[in-house]
Design goal:
The structure is a homodimer.
Chain A (H helix, E strand, L loop, with lengths): L3 E2 L9 H12 L19 H14 L6 E6 L3 H12 L3 E6 L2 H10 L4 E7 L20 E5 L1 E2 L4 E2 L10 E4 L14 E7 L10 E6 L16 H6 L9 H16 L2 H22 L3 E3 L10 E6 L7 H10 L2 E2 L10 E4 L6 H16 L2
Parallel strand pairs in A: 1-13, 3-4, 3-5, 5-8, 8-9
Antiparallel strand pairs in A: 2-10, 6-7, 9-10, 11-12, 12-14
Helix pairs in contact in A: 1-6, 2-6, 3-4, 7-9
């Protein structure tokens, strides 16, 4: 049976990314060695890094003065590396959900941290808007898309201080004004790659200002200066970045990714709003186009498990809401298809007709 | 042409590990999804972690009271995490080469560090022996195999204090008395996996004693408590650990890996010692069986480039010595074959016959 992958991450990737990666694992560029066993310092791998960096810069229109680096450890590791590198006196954080809160917590180890705005009081079901941003912050940290709750800042914020964006779950899904940011980082296992690599876009002249001695690997300068080759980088995950970036470019770039995301989200939210069994969980204006969260309406609560089973029988994978929230979550990253979304919508319609 | 892979890391892996990984990337366990796009929290992936941990424990005969965890970032990141977690007052380090020195450097950020012994004065071409180990150390850090210089402690040291071993380049190549260690860690891209995952074996009751507040991701307890699932782990690299550990077990375990390593090394060092063109660089008793380093004898210096070309034409890959040392290095990790070693030896013989 055909599967429709709505996993929140690691998540659906374009089929050609998967097939090309498997092919290169069997024989990398026809050299008679596997992608798994080539040296990261070989003449065969350097072009992978170079083209990946070039494509990321091209696709997101990264201005000069920024570096793109690849790290291991996941975005969670960046929660401590970001303040270690950029917190001089005071940093601001938006508390918009689980991951935002985790980022904020780690920053407190490095200096003064201000919670500039929070939607915790609303159960994170909406986003803060129209808040004041203190002008003396070193940076304002935002989680642009909140994977668990399904809220998303779909535009770059206006801010009197530089932004730092955790874009783990919506990078490459829309054009971004990179010049507003000191750093954009993303655990790449949603829109960019298999799990195992973190992508950072770092403004070079903001590095080296923090008043603390950093371990070599924690200091972003190490990786900028060595072109992500200070130590052995995650070779195969980086290769999957390259393949995915090639796919994004071939499919029209981030402008087209945005159009597709909007279209998918419209179809799915329209059905959620129309169908008597379901309701969206998030304030309409803050709805994520990446993670579409919904629950059964109160009078149909007992149908949650039956609908999950019904959809699973039709090939839906990963539609269970995050364990801290419940209900359903259909993650629609760049690789998600209209076919997948329509299959889910049809399942919702058919299930409704039965009840 | 058949290639013989002598890369120092990432390096040769068993062909069945490569083929099985490629197959699972195309369709994981026949579920209709790629290994690249399954959730790390799915019922499909948990058994991968569980079996990998179980096999590592079985193969290295890990005593109870130890945990096995998987991290990203590489062994270089552990150079700071090790002292962050285990340095209470004073740590000892053996300075046996480039990586050992890097580990020592990072530890100094966290407390008092003693260089217990060093072979820097010998250009790292031998290993320190018969040194005194202060009894008041929290731990003694050793780099069991020095990838760049080709020296190796082939037995666990006797020590009055617990050991911490960077075994990045010789883990799984011999039985180890794990009970002597507080922690064994390894960037897994030599004997255990593709690049992108670090394996740690940690003694549970040594955690949480260091007198400092640790960032969540730096604290090993985070990963022990969450079974390497605090955040998204490197799914595909971990899968390649599983495949490689299955291969090691099927091929007789670490005892047999040791026998094979000794056999390969004997054949290659015998030729180096016999052949008039070459000489080994390392003191005989300290020679690594993983990284076999040699240079042209002084009177044949000008033949270095010609021999490199000669061997390359016969399919040898990765035999250039590390850029900081020069000469040649044939890395013979677990997956290296007698066929590969014999091909290199034959090239050395044939080249000698021409000169």
């Amino acid at each position: 049976m055909k599967k429709y992958n709505f996993n929140a991450g690691p998540s659906m990737l374009p089929r050609e990314v998967i097939e090309n990666t498997a092919k290169q694992i069997l024989d990398f560029n026809g050299i008679g060695l596997s992608l798994m066993e080539i040296s990261h310092r070989s003449k065969d791998f350097q072009p992978v890094i170079d083209e990946s960096v070039a494509l990321i810069k091209e696709l997101l229109d990264v201005p000069s003065g920024y570096s793109v680096i690849f790290l291991g450890g996941g975005a969670s590791l960046e929660f401590m590396q970001i303040p270690a590198n950029f917190l001089i006196k005071k940093a601001g954080y938006l508390n918009t959900g689980t991951w935002a809160k985790k980022a904020l917590k780690e920053a407190k180890l490095f200096g003064e941290v201000v919670e500039v705005a929070s939607s915790a009081g609303d159960g994170y079901m909406k986003l803060p808007h129209n808040f004041d941003i203190p002008k003396d912050l070193d940076y304002l940290h935002i989680t642009s898309n909140n994977t668990i709750y399904g809220t998303e800042y779909r535009k770059d914020l206006d801010s009197p201080v530089p932004l730092i964006g955790d874009m783990s779950s919506d990078i490459m899904s829309r054009p971004v004004d990179v010049s507003k940011y000191t750093c954009i980082y993303a655990g790449a296992q949603k829109n960019m790659a298999m799990a195992g690599v973190t992508v950072l876009i770092v403004k070079d002249d903001m590095l080296g200002k923090a008043p603390r001695e950093l371990p070599t690997m924690v200091d972003y300068r190490t990786h900028v200066e060595k072109g992500s080759m200070f130590n052995t980088p995650p070779v195969v995950p980086i290769y999957s970045v390259l393949e995915t970036m090639r796919w994004v470019k071939a499919h029209g770039g981030v402008k087209e990714m945005e159009r597709r995301a909007d279209e998918r989200a419209r179809i799915l939210y329209d059905e959620i709003d129309r169908n008597k069994l379901f309701r969206g969980t998030v304030a309409t204006e803050d709805r994520s186009v990446m993670n579409i969260c919904f629950v059964m309406n109160d009078e149909y609560k007992e149908l949650e498990k039956p609908f999950f089973d019904f959809a699973t029988e039709r090939g839906m994978v990963g539609i269970k809401g995050h364990r801290s929230v419940g209900g359903f979550r259909a993650s629609c990253y760049n690789a998600q298809t209209l076919e997948g979304v329509n299959a889910l919508v049809q399942a919702m319609k058919d299930f409704e007709a039965q009840h």
